[in-house]
Write a structure and sequence with these properties.
Oligomer: single chain
Number of helices: 7
Shape: elongated
Helix content: over 70%
Length: about 200
């Protein structure tokens, strides 16, 4: 019990770090995007092309995420379709907020399971189920907005690969509960890469 109490003391510290680090990252994304708001679709396509490739590479995927966000912002301005950026933004914000909620869920589940159930197999099973459900909800919500962003990009640009990417991203989110979902995410990234390559001319 003392160990759990000490652990719960550090939960607010972890959450503060999580929130402020994401806000700092998000602020830099907006600054970089605003600086490049006058770039044409070819420049944005190059950013999206490189970013989508980096998203497939471990340890540098966060760089790819940033480049794709900047690309989507610039493309939303170029096509005059704010839904592209707003849906991408909702996907990002939802992931951040859901991550904070997930931290509370895990901490609360761990604490209550030890108080009322003891550190047995049943309590560990409850923690695992809570983690799984929260994680799955995060993936679904983020996948929903990401699908909308790429559907809007496909309609505005006339590039069908983006709508294919949207469809595969959504299927990947739904099927994340099984391994095939991860494969579908890769398929979606490939379609996104093809779409961005066409924007590059």
């Amino acid at each position: 019990m003392e160990g759990v109490a000490h652990l719960l003391i550090y939960i607010p510290v972890f959450i503060d770090y999580f929130v402020y680090s994401r806000i700092y990252l998000f602020k830099n994304v907006l600054i970089n995007a605003a600086m490049g708001s006058q770039e044409d679709t070819r420049s944005a396509g190059t950013l999206g092309f490189v970013g989508s490739i980096l998203m497939l590479i471990p340890y540098v995927s966060i760089v790819g995420d940033i480049l794709v966000l900047i690309a989507l912002y610039r493309l939303s301005r170029a096509y005059g379709n704010n839904a592209i950026w707003s849906n991408a933004l909702y996907a990002l914000v939802t992931a951040i907020v859901s991550g904070i909620i997930l931290a509370f869920v895990l901490a609360g589940t761990a604490y209550l399971s030890l108080i009322y159930m003891g550190p047995g197999a049943l309590s560990r099973l409850g923690m695992a189920i809570a983690f799984f459900v929260a994680f799955y909800i995060i993936i679904l919500i983020s996948g929903f907005f990401l699908r909308n962003a790429y559907n809007e990009l496909g309609r505005s640009s006339g590039v069908g690969d983006f709508e294919s990417a949207a469809r595969w991203y959504w299927l990947g989110a739904i099927l994340t509960i099984i391994i095939v979902g991860l494969i579908l995410y890769i398929v979606a990234d490939v379609y996104a890469i093809l779409g961005y390559s066409k924007l590059r001319g």
